[in-house]
Specification:
The protein is mainly alpha-helical. The chain is built from 15 helices and no strands. Helix 8 crosses helix 10 and helix 14 runs antiparallel to helix 15.
Length: 342
């Protein structure tokens, strides 16, 4: 019987050691959560203020989308003057006869002074109108700001100079004054002075005017970001490999700009809500009988000394929405950019 020599056993040990060295290391359990998106979501979930604000904002958008369905189940609409068929709803001075603005089981938020419209359904459709215009203006503004900002930062030279001066001019305008001045001009392009302005044209004009004066700040921010990114190594490497400008913008630059875009957009929408309501209050935006936050506040301002209820619900709901969305914007900023945490 022949015993194995040490030299014969050595290769076996070498193979065993090599196989152990080459074995893949176990994946850490939290490896998947290290992506930027998952880390941001994890930070956001720890922010109770952000979560509560998000729930409030989602609630308002659900209300806006489901307004026709809710009104149908409720059994009323925002245009019918219920006091015409039931004069007892108003007193001798055309104010709600019941307490708290006429609130009852039939009219949950009461009725409007003089006309006797249902406040609850009017508010539902007002939220729908105001948020619809603000969302459309925000999307169009973000699109223009992204295109102009990236173009100026990437091309540089004279293009950057002229766009930069245009941004400076727009930012120097007193926006509210120009909103009031330009609205009649836009209406006059489509409708004769002696004709009624259709609701769709008022909404479209609001979206265009808000977007025309709102994109400059986002474009300036993105221009500065692109000026820094285009000198980075990964962009230079893409140019050396012969990548087209389109590929560089969409594959290299744009993915690094989503954080400022999202943050600015979340702060832009509530600003447009208040701007749209302000224009309606001044009579150059949406007008009665179209339900709108600004229209309700403007109507309520005529009766608040005698009946505060009609002004209370639209004013309180708009303040809650704008405050919740601003807090949500702050929470999103802190989640995406921890260095900016308060």
């Amino acid at each position: 019987m022949t015993l194995p020599t040490p030299s014969a056993a050595a290769p076996l040990n070498e193979v065993t050691d090599a196989s152990v060295d080459k074995a893949p290391a176990p994946t850490p359990q939290g490896g998947e959560s290290r992506s930027p998106g998952r880390l941001a979501w994890k930070r956001f979930k720890r922010d109770r203020t952000g979560l509560v604000s998000a729930c409030i904002v989602i609630f308002f958008f659900v209300i806006a989308l489901a307004a026709p369905l809710i009104a149908k189940v409720y059994g009323k609409d925002p245009y019918t003057t219920y006091a015409s068929a039931h004069p007892e709803l108003l007193d001798a001075f055309s104010y709600p006869a019941g307490p708290n603005g006429g609130m009852s089981g039939d009219f949950w938020f009461g009725i409007e002074p003089q006309l006797g419209r249902d406040v609850f359904t009017f508010l539902l459709y007002a939220i729908r109108t105001s948020l619809g215009i603000a969302v459309a203006a925000t999307l169009l503004t973000a699109f223009i700001g992204i295109v102009v900002g990236i173009t100026a930062g990437y091309l540089g030279g004279r293009t950057d100079y002229f766009i930069g001066r245009l941004i400076d001019i727009l930012l120097s305008f007193p926006s509210t004054l120009f909103f009031i001045a330009f609205m009649p001009v836009i209406y006059g392009l489509f409708v004769a002075p002696d004709e009624n302005i259709p609701t769709w044209l008022r909404a479209l004009a609001l979206i265009l005017v808000l977007s025309a004066f709102g994109w400059a700040s986002l474009a300036r921010l993105l221009r500065g970001q692109v000026l820094g990114l285009r000198e980075r190594e990964f962009v230079e490497a893409a140019k050396v490999t012969g990548a087209s400008s389109r590929r560089i913008i969409f594959k290299e630059l744009l993915p690094n700009l989503w954080t400022p875009i999202i943050i600015q957009t979340t702060l832009m929408l509530p600003a447009f809500v208040t701007a749209e309501a302000g224009l309606a209050f001044l009579g150059v935006g949406m007008i009665d009988p179209t339900p709108d936050w600004g229209v309700m506040i403007q109507r309520g301002a005529q009766f608040y000394t005698e009946d505060l209820t009609f002004m209370l619900f639209p004013g309180l709901s708009m303040v809650i929405f704008v405050l919740a969305f601003n807090l949500l914007g702050d929470s999103v900023r802190d989640a995406l950019d921890p260095k900016s945490r308060r």
